[in-house]
Design goal:
Layout: E1 3-8, E2 24-25, E3 28-29, H1 30-39, E4 46-51, E5 64-68, H2 75-85, E6 91-96, H3 104-111, E7 120-125, E8 128-129, E9 133-137, H4 141-149, H5 155-161, E10 164-169, H6 182-195
Parallel strand pairs: 1-4, 1-6, 4-5, 7-10
Antiparallel strand pairs: 2-3, 6-9, 7-8, 7-9
Helix pairs in contact: 1-3, 2-4
Guanosine-5'-triphosphate is lined by residues 8-16, 21, 49-50, 68, 72-75, 77-78, 96-98, 132, 180.
Amino acid sequence: MNVAGVILAGGQSSRYGQPKMFETFEGLPLYKHSLNALQGNQLNPLVIATNASLQPSFGPENVQWIIEQQPHQGPLFALHHILTAFPEVEWFFVVASDMPYMNAPFVEEMLGNINDSYDAIVPKQNSRYQPLAALYRRTALPLAKQLMEQNKRSMKVLLDQLRVSYVPFNENCPTFININAHHDWLQTVTKESNNE
Ligand SMILES: Nc1nc2c(ncn2[C@@H]2O[C@H](COP(=O)(O)OP(=O)(O)OP(=O)(O)O)[C@@H](O)[C@H]2O)c(=O)[nH]1
């Protein structure tokens, strides 16, 4: 099956204070952890969705670039843009670029849960679901479009109205840790150096 891999890397990083996708974790910029997880599963096409001011700071990646003309419109806008830009693709693995522990086995497990009875396959840990490490099917586009037209930008509102299969993950699984503010980063880096 043709599944695209998409990295959302056009956020404002306002809580972090500088573009967080370029912070280095275990020798690689954060966005590369997401890219490697997708690349490890031969997803095609591989896409980085960002904006013109951030794009020059990425490495020369072998991906297709989506450069959002209106920056910082949020993940739902980015998802809507991507579903529209690749009309031949049925499923999209969409992942944020601020998840230091993103990894290929997680992506593989999620791919194993693809089921055409659903519009989205979303991981869930404890009671929290993770819309930015999830699979979206082309059938999500009409609702995403409708929400954009109503200026509703919430992934939660989208998922509440789609047919979603939630995939449970163990509460100790670190995959979903993401960096919002500096203290998240300090916690992650400190934990890593204590583990060494
Ligand atoms: N392509 C794209 N990605 C986005 C956009 N907004 C957020 N993202 C990405 O979505 C993921 C989660 O973003 P958030 O942390 O919620 O938002 P943020 O704008 O990056 O950060 P804050 O300004 O602190 O809220 C990150 O990987 C962002 O880069 C957007 O408008 N376009």
